[in-house]
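Researcher: Sequence recovery benchmark, item below. Answer with residues only.
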């Protein structure tokens, strides 16, 4: 029926989409219709319901899966559609978007809520194949409260299929102009920098995945003789950045690449896990799905399958893309399934307790259209989603859009907005990837390339930048030996101890890296038997921009004579009541003493030197009494707990500045007996 545009091995359909003006109400209900073209049993392409909602095409218009097409292409039999409006209203104009083979409309009727009919237009006008228009009809009775509109047409007037994209009521007389839904401050010009000959070749460089720290870029290279499977297959390559220059790209080699098509889809924040397209079979062949490989001190492991419940893809060529959330617990994929809106939709799957993934869930009609949605990328803020669509209005054969998540279901999203003509071209655009800094975005494009698609970067303008985050990285250190320790790192919100993340740290494979949203405070804990964790408090509550923080976490061996100084025990200024943020550290002290029933500890309180010496001494004594009281109330015998207040007499840092002075306001625990 309709012509298709074929890209590279991930194929896509052609389509466009639009924004809506506030004075126009587009039809929201389907009252009835004569027939509809059914492309496939699964999907809603060309169905009558595609005439609902705002227009999906703009001048110069063109065929779209997001528009109603009657079943009969050239019949003299009358075809019709009747649509209703969520809020019946008076209107000065009725707008009918004919986006393909315009000129077949013969009659237009308006109805009030009681069903009273008013003929508002009769005629035909010139019938022009392959041309669209917005048919604007002046309503003869502007006092009528219109509840629904019926449009009749004669398909025989224009050879081929006819399409109606949208029907609306305009409350004003002025002409309605279809526009692309672009961010208001989208720049007219953006410099796209080619990453250079070290990364790009005359072959095909696509699907860039930039590491969160922005120092390594992974991508898929095709049409290249040096691929393991030759020029007819694709391999995963990577390049590292030195300053502002990219070093020459290297093939990932086995076991990531084999003689089949290989492609990377995501990388974990610490760079130690790669997620790859397809399932790697033991015999070297591939099948549809997702795999992951982990980095060890000797290299990358063989990719293993990520098992997804009820995973299938009705796309005839198995075209698909995947992306993972920075937390690693949410998977977004572009596939065609039985409940698809059209060709391929975006679906979400969640990591389950048994390390498998839940059944894919359609992400909803705000994002998904009757055409192709593909190439998703979740930014490090865990809220911002970039994807390519043929069903939302754009500038060419698939544009990049941005939307933000509105709740925890991952099915409610803001209205997608086009990134603008400086980013989207007349060709297919997609595979956008942004590091944690949010400064640059990386895309693949044919415009100004060295051959096929190349990798480019451009500066991200404010409206499309993800919400700011911080990268926290470092090592877990034994407080005695100062050597790294293999351990688990847990991150909790400081205000309520809610768990944020949990990762494994192995010093053999590099430092740990955690991505955290700013404007919150966090507690970082390293958990290891035989050690007491000295939590790191990371205060990002006043930060509004990206931060890169180096922070080692100390573990204190549990043995007689060791002194433990938790960072999280807090009091109000000049008060001795425990703040809620203090309880996790005190609970750990309690658990440690339960594990070692003969342990006795000395609790010591200290202040800075601000204020009266005597009052500070009294304050420190009251604070350690509160700590002791908390532990006794939890069930510890009082004779296992000694308490002593020192006031300001034992500083560990200068009292000259607040930054160092706060280190003197502390509670210490010394193990006096095991």
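Model:
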């Amino acid at each position: 029926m309709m012509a298709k545009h074929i890209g590279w091995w991930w194929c896509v359909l052609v389509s466009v989409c639009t924004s809506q003006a506030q004075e126009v109400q587009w039809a929201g209900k389907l009252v009835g219709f004569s027939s509809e073209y059914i492309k496939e049993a699964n999907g809603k392409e060309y169905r009558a319901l595609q005439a609902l909602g705002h227009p999906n095409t703009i001048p110069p218009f063109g065929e779209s899966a997001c528009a109603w097409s009657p079943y009969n292409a050239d019949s003299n039999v009358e075809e019709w559609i009747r649509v209703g409006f969520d809020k019946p209203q008076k209107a000065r104009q009725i707008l009918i978007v004919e986006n393909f083979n315009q000129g077949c409309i013969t009659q237009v009727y308006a109805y009030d809520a009681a069903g009273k009919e008013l003929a508002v237009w009769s005629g035909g006008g010139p019938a022009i194949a392959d041309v669209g228009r917005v048919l604007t009809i002046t309503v003869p009775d502007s006092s009528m409260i219109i509840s629904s509109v019926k449009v009749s047409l004669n398909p025989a007037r224009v050879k081929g299929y006819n399409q109606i994209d949208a029907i609306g009521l305009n409350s004003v007389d002025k002409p309605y102009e279809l526009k692309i839904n672009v961010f208001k401050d989208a720049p007219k010009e953006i410099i796209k920098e080619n990453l250079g000959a070290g990364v790009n070749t005359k072959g095909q460089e696509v699907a860039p995945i930039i590491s969160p720290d922005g120092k390594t870029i992974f991508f898929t290279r095709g049409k290249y003789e040096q691929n393991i499977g030759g020029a007819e297959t694709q391999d995963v390559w990577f390049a590292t950045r030195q300053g502002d220059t990219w070093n020459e790209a290297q093939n990932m080699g086995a076991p990531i690449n084999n003689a089949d098509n290989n492609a990377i889809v995501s990388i974990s924040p610490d760079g130690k896990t790669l997620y790859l397209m397809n399932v790697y079979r033991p015999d070297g062949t591939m099948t549809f799905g997702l795999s992951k490989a982990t980095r060890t001190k000797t290299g990358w492991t063989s990719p293993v399958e990520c098992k997804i419940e009820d995973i299938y893809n009705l796309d005839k060529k198995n075209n698909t893309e995947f992306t993972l959330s920075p937390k690693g617990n949410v998977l977004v994929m572009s596939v065609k399934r039985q409940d698809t809106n059209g060709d391929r939709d975006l679906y979400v799957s969640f990591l389950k307790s048994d390390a498998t993934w839940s059944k894919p869930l359609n992400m909803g009609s705000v994002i998904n259209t009757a055409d192709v949605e593909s190439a998703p990328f979740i930014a490090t803020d865990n809220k911002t989603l970039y994807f390519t669509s043929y069903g939302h209005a754009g500038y060419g054969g698939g544009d990049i859009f941005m939307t933000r998540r509105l709740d925890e279901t991952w099915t409610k999203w803001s209205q997608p907005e086009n990134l603008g003509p400086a980013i989207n071209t007349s060709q297919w655009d997609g595979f956008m990837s942004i590091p944690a800094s949010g400064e640059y975005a990386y895309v693949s494009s044919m415009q100004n390339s060295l051959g096929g698609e190349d990798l480019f970067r451009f500066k991200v303008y404010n409206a499309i930048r993800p919400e700011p985050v911080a990268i926290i990285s470092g090592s877990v250190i034994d407080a005695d030996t100062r050597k790294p320790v293999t351990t688990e790192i847990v991150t909790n919100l400081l205000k309520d101890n809610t768990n944020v993340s949990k990762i494994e740290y192995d010093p053999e494979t590099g430092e740990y890296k955690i991505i955290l949203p700013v404007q919150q405070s966090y507690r970082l804990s390293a958990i290891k038997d035989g050690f007491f964790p000295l939590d790191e408090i990371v205060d990002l509550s006043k930060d509004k921009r990206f931060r890169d923080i180096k922070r080692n976490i100390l573990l204190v061996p549990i043995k007689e004579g060791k002194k433990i100084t938790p960072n999280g025990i807090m009091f109000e200024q000049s008060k001795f009541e425990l703040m809620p943020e203090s309880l996790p550290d005190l609970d750990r002290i309690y658990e440690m003493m339960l594990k070692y029933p003969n342990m006795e500890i000395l609790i010591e309180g200290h202040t800075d030197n601000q204020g009266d010496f005597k009052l500070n001494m009294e304050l420190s004594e009251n604070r350690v009494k509160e700590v002791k009281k908390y532990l006794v109330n939890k069930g510890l015998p009082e004779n296992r707990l000694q308490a002593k207040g020192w006031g300001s007499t034992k500083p560990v840092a200068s009292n000259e500045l607040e930054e160092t002075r706060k280190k003197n306001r502390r509670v210490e625990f010394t193990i006096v007996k095991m």
